[in-house]
């Protein structure tokens, strides 16, 4: 949305009492020129009519002295010329002058109506009411000073009051319409700003999610690289076959890490409107492959999956996979050479339970492979977001245990069977 046009900024509620800006658009110049032609043109014709009696521009007024005609012409000229500045700071002084001059002026009548109409459009109702009342008073005094031949006093006052009321109502309608347009424009601009803010927030949330996903995916791969590189470092007398095997694992892990990174970064470029999860998104069906990768790095993994992975909902399966992946990664980092037992069990009624155990390393956790210290924190948050819980720590049996529980919503068929049994 574009900015509010300068000529309409005075319509805002906070600017109702401030003078309108003097800068005019082409449309304003055309309207002001037309108002000047109408207002000052009537002034010239009415003065000529009063002096010559050859025209019928004004009614047959009672005898008007020549000096009053010229005074009337001067007043009409001032009002007519003032129409060019009726949008600026001179509006209120010009309106006051018109209210006083309307007591006797004939030539300045139409120009005075244009000024009153401008007050109705550009100022609040209280200001308009004051000038409308002043106009009605002037209208009541005018027939006493300059009576019209052949027309009763009440008829002259009535027609003048009708014109004043019509002009005020017309200006109020235009003012209300412009205020409505400004209000709608302001609402549209606010809605656009809020939409941009929501988009920025969504981008921030998505980038945070991607950062967590990158940690979960890459930490596992890089820990494998570190372990194999460390094995080559501490075994300088390794046989060419062992070196080739370790190099092959390092190459494969590096290639897979790059592939995972490419897929995660691809989320930034992919425009998925269906709300589907972006790859990589492994579930419980990928646990055997995950365990095999750890075994290839020399970690003894005992995987015990007592459920059918395909029966677990995708969201629960993804969260469980990340928990197991982080548990194996931590075991390789802080307890290298130990055996890790992974147990996954549960049911739709009881939920999904994950238990990862490994012996506490002698001498305390190793710091050979540095970590960010946020892996378990991220897992705890992931479990909480999924509606579950996660705990970890050292047991009296001198084991490190990472246990988690995730809700297992029953699928539609299970729910239907349970309902039928009930």
TrEMBL record:
Gene3D superfamilies: 1.20.5.1930, Histidine kinase-like ATPase, C-terminal domain. One of its GO terms (molecular function) is kinase activity. The chain crosses the membrane at residues 29-47, 67-85, 92-119, 125-145, 157-174. Residues 206-271 form the Signal transduction histidine kinase subgroup 3 dimerisation and phosphoacceptor domain. Its EC number is 2.7.13.3. The keyword Kinase applies. InterPro entries: HATPase_C_sf (IPR036890), Sensor_HK_TwoCompSys (IPR050482), Sig_transdc_His_kin_sub3_dim/P (IPR011712). Keywords: ATP-binding, Kinase, Membrane, Nucleotide-binding, Phosphoprotein, Transferase, Transmembrane, Transmembrane helix, Two-component regulatory system. It holds the Pfam family HisKA_3. It catalyses: ATP + protein L-histidine = ADP + protein N-phospho-L-histidine. SUPFAM superfamilies: ATPase domain of HSP90 chaperone/DNA topoisomerase II/histidine kinase (SSF55874). It is an enzyme of class 2 (transferase). This is histidine kinase.
């Amino acid at each position: 949305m574009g900015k509010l046009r300068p000529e309409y900024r005075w319509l805002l509620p906070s600017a109702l009492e401030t003078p309108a800006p003097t800068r005019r658009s082409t449309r304003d110049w055309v309207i002001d020129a037309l108002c000047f032609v109408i207002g000052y043109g009537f002034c010239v014709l009415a003065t000529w009519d009063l002096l010559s009696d050859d025209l019928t521009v004004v009614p047959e007024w009672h005898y008007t002295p020549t000096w009053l005609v010229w005074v009337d012409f001067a007043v009409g000229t001032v009002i007519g010329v003032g129409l060019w500045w009726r949008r600026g700071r001179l509006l209120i002084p010009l309106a006051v002058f018109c209210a006083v001059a309307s007591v006797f002026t004939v030539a300045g009548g139409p120009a005075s109506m244009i000024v009153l109409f401008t007050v109705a459009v550009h100022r609040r109702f209280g200001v308009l009411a004051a000038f409308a009342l002043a106009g009605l008073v002037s209208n009541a005094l005018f027939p006493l000073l300059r009576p019209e031949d052949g027309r009763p006093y009440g008829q002259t006052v009535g027609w003048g009051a009708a014109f004043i009321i019509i002009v005020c109502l017309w200006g109020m309608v235009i003012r209300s319409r412009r205020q409505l347009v400004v209000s709608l424009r302001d609402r549209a601009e606010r809605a656009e700003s809020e939409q941009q803010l929501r988009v920025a927030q969504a981008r921030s949330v998505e980038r945070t999610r991607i950062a967590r996903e990158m940690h979960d995916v890459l930490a596992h791969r890089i820990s494998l690289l570190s372990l194999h590189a460390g094995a080559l470092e501490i075994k300088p007398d390794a046989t060419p076959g062992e070196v080739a095997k370790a190099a092959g694992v390092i190459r494969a892990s590096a290639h897979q890490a790059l592939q995972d990174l490419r897929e995660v970064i691809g989320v930034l470029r992919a425009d998925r409107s269906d709300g589907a999860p972006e790859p990589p998104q492994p579930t419980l069906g990928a646990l055997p492959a995950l365990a095999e990768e750890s075994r290839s790095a020399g970690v003894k993994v005992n995987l015990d999956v007592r459920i059918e992975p395909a029966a677990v909902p995708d969201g629960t399966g993804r969260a469980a996979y990340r928990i197991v992946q982080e548990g194996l990664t931590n075991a390789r980092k802080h307890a290298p050479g130990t055996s890790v037992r992974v147990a996954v069990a549960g049911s739709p009624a009881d939920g999904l339970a994950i238990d990862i155990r490994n012996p506490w390393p002698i001498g305390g956790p190793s710091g050979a492979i540095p970590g960010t210290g946020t892996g378990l924190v991220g897992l705890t948050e992931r479990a909480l977001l999924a509606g579950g819980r996660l705990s970890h720590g050292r047991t009296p049996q001198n084991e490190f245990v990472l246990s988690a529980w995730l809700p297992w919503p029953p699928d539609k068929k299970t729910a239907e069977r349970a309902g039928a049994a009930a």
